[in-house]
Write a structure and sequence with these properties.
about 140 residues, Thiol Ester Dehydrase, Chain A, six-stranded antiparallel β-sheet
């Protein structure tokens, strides 16, 4: 949890990475356990709770943020900001009790002045079943 909190500005109730399972220079695998106690299930949907797709995208974005800041020191001096969601697809509903395994790989990196623009591809699984996939682009800027 230490690397999560050092890398991301997000905190409860908007932190959607529970555990880093594997972290390499170009790839990360994280886990998010989906609990019925999550705040968004109150209204999405009361009689048939389904994890909102935007939360799946946010969880993947947070995993990518950890990956992109992996080699930055000090981590708390940089801010990864999501700038684009590219070709995201959902294949299966996510319900309370599901454990999401989120795999993110670096794709390409552009630099413009002090700002770095990395892109990553990600996949989200429940057990071995693909539930969502897509590509995300970020801007990583020094905090001022």
């Amino acid at each position: 949890m230490d690397i999560i909190l050092k890398s991301l500005p997000h905190r409860y109730p908007f932190l959607f990475v529970d555990k880093v399972l594997d972290l390499k220079d170009d790839e990360i695998i994280v886990k998010k356990s989906v609990s019925i106690n999550e705040w968004f299930f109150v209204g999405h949907f009361p009689d048939n709770p389904v994890l909102p797709g935007v939360i799946i995208i946010e969880a993947m974005a947070q995993a990518a943020g950890i990956l992109f800041l992996h080699n930055f020191e000090p981590k708390d001096q940089y801010l990864p900001v999501l700038t684009a969601v590219n070709e995201f697809k959902f294949k299966k509903s996510v319900k309370p009790g599901d454990d999401l395994i989120i795999k993110v790989k670096k794709e390409k990196i552009k630099k413009l002045g002090e700002v770095i623009f990395p892109t990553a591809k990600g996949e989200v699984y429940i057990e071995n079943n693909l539930v969502a996939y897509g590509s995300l682009t970020f801007a990583i800027t020094p905090k001022k």
